[in-house]
Each structure stands twice: as structure tokens, then as C-alpha cells.
Write a structure and sequence with these properties.
This protein is an alpha/beta fold. 38% of the residues lie in helices and 20% in strands. Strand 6, helix 3 and strand 7 form a beta-alpha-beta unit. The radius of gyration is 25 Å and the shape is elongated.
Length: 282
């Protein structure tokens, strides 16, 4: 049959013709398919978490109708198991405000920043958020959380952080009408205490009051004094307790600067050589 009728050649020829016809439509089909996949994932996420709520998102022109440009109640991280999750209420009262979060190691600062970021991303994607109330303006979300150095490109962690923070400052000064919601974890932690304090104070002063708002976590307790000189700065903190020789964290966000530190305590609990007298003095 194949010898008399070139069936394989005919089928290959027809497939080539169909390929030429489909090539024009395939990108559109794939875009629609990917959109359906994303919507299906969000729908499945909402089905698996019926206690989550849909966010209220307002355009920037409607910000005068809001009590605050960002407001959330019972805000939690969707990847933390329910039995271990601690939720917090949080609001930012006006554009240009910067909230500084201090606290001990492992107290929950970085997790809280990630909680804000992931719920904003869910909200803007059209999905439900891990909260009982979530109201926000439309923001450009900018993060400086997972910064790393590069051996191949020859720059350090600190230089990578500086470049990232410069990009944020450039975005704020770009003149875009949509404000920025930024999240900065452990600002300038790649340098010494003195230069970190000087650089952080200058950088925060350059951001406050502009077309942005955000949250910065830090171990540098000297930065909390900025709230006394800059009206757009507020202080929050997480704390820990020592019970029966072990540190216990409640992961509850509190107003004001952190009253405690725990680095020496962690070193002592893990058996590192720490002077007990210095530990008591601190």
C-alpha cells in the first residue's frame, strides 16, 4: 500500500500545512491556557481555605475614602500550619509612612514581612488572603529580603543590597503615580554597626514622606530614635520570654521599640563561650 500510495509523505505534508496555520494562533491559545491554569490555582486555593477573605482593593484616586491606605486584621502567613499560626492586626495610616520593626533573633520580624508580601501578591492576583479584613490601595510591591552575593559576578552581599536599595530609591523618585509598598529585611546588615546606623538613617530619611510606604526590620535599636525627629516613622517590635531556661516567642506584633535582645542568650543556650556577667548586664 505504501509503495503504491505515498501515505507517509502525504500525512507529513498535511501536518506541515496545519503547522503553518496553527503557528499564528498558538501563542494566543497558550496565553489563554496559562490564564486558565492560574485562575484554576487561585480557585483551588480559595476552596482549600474557606476561612480566607477576598481583599478590597481601591485605585489610588480613591485613597481619600479610606481610613488608611493599608489595613489588615488577623493577618497570617498562608504557608504556616493553622495550629502554629499567629495572626496580627496591622495598618499604615498614610502614604509616606515607614514602620520600623525591631526584635530579637527568631522573634518573627522576617516572617511578618513575608506575610505582608505574600498576601499583597495574592490580593493583586485576584485570590483570597489569609486575613479577616484586608483593604489596600493599588501599590507597586518592592522587596529587599532574599539578597545574596555572587562569586561569578564578583560582588558581595553588601554590594548586592546597596544596588537593590538604590533601585528602590530610583523607583520612588521616578514620578510614577502609583505608590510603592516596600519591604526591607535587616537593612544594611552586611556592614559594621556605625556605618549601618549612618547609612540607614540617611536612607530612611530619603524615603519617608514620598509616594511610598513600607516596613523595615532591623536589629539596630538606634534607628528607633528616628520616630522622635521624623513624623512619618512608627516603631513596632516582637519580643520573647525566657521560661525554664528556654526562649519562648509569642510572635505578637507590639507598638514601640524592642525592649530586649537575645543574641547572647542564644549563644549561651547553644554552648558557645559567653561571659555570664556580660549576659546579665545586657
Amino acid at each position: 500500500m505504501n509503495a503504491l500510495v505515498p501515505w507517509d509523505f502525504y500525512i507529513a505534508y498535511r501536518f506541515h500545512q496545519y503547522k503553518s496555520k496553527v503557528a499564528m494562533y498558538l501563542p494566543l491559545w497558550l496565553d489563554i491556557w496559562l490564564e486558565l491554569e492560574a485562575l484554576n490555582s487561585l480557585a483551588n486555593f480559595a476552596y482549600l481555605n474557606p476561612e480566607y477573605v477576598l481583599p478590597e482593593i481601591f485605585p489610588c484616586v480613591g485613597q481619600d475614602n479610606l481610613n488608611a491606605p493599608f489595613q489588615a486584621c488577623d493577618l497570617g502567613h498562608p504557608l504556616i500550619p493553622q495550629q502554629q499560626k499567629v495572626v496580627n492586626d496591622f495598618a499604615i495610616d498614610k502614604l509616606g509612612e515607614i514602620d520600623i520593626i525591631t526584635g530579637s533573633n527568631m522573634s518573627g520580624k522576617s516572617t511578618f514581612l513575608r506575610t505582608l508580601g505574600v498576601n499583597l501578591c495574592l490580593a493583586y492576583a485576584g485570590g483570597p488572603v489569609n486575613a479577616s479584613l484586608f483593604r489596600t490601595l493599588l501599590f507597586r510591591v518592592f522587596t529587599c529580603i532574599r539578597i545574596s552575593d555572587s562569586v561569578t559576578e564578583g560582588y558581595s552581599y553588601f554590594f548586592a543590597e546597596v544596588k537593590r536599595l538604590k533601585a528602590l530609591l530610583t523607583a520612588v523618585e521616578s514620578g510614577d503615580t502609583m505608590p510603592i509598598f516596600f519591604l526591607i529585611d535587616e537593612i544594611f546588615k552586611g556592614t559594621n554597626n556605625r556605618e549601618r546606623r549612618i547609612g540607614s538613617e540617611a536612607y530612611i530619611s530619603a524615603l519617608v514622606g514620598h509616594n511610598c510606604l513600607g516596613v523595615i526590620s532591623t536589629h539596630d535599636l538606634d534607628l528607633v530614635a528616628l520616630a522622635d525627629t521624623l513624623p512619618g516613622i512608627r516603631n513596632y517590635h516582637f519580643k520573647e520570654d525566657v521560661i525554664d531556661g528556654e526562649m519562648v516567642f509569642d510572635y505578637i506584633l507590639r507598638t514601640g521599640p524592642s525592649p530586649t535582645t537575645n543574641a547572647l542568650k542564644i549563644m549561651q543556650l547553644e554552648g558557645l563561650p559567653v561571659d555570664i556577667k556580660d549576659l546579665r548586664d545586657r
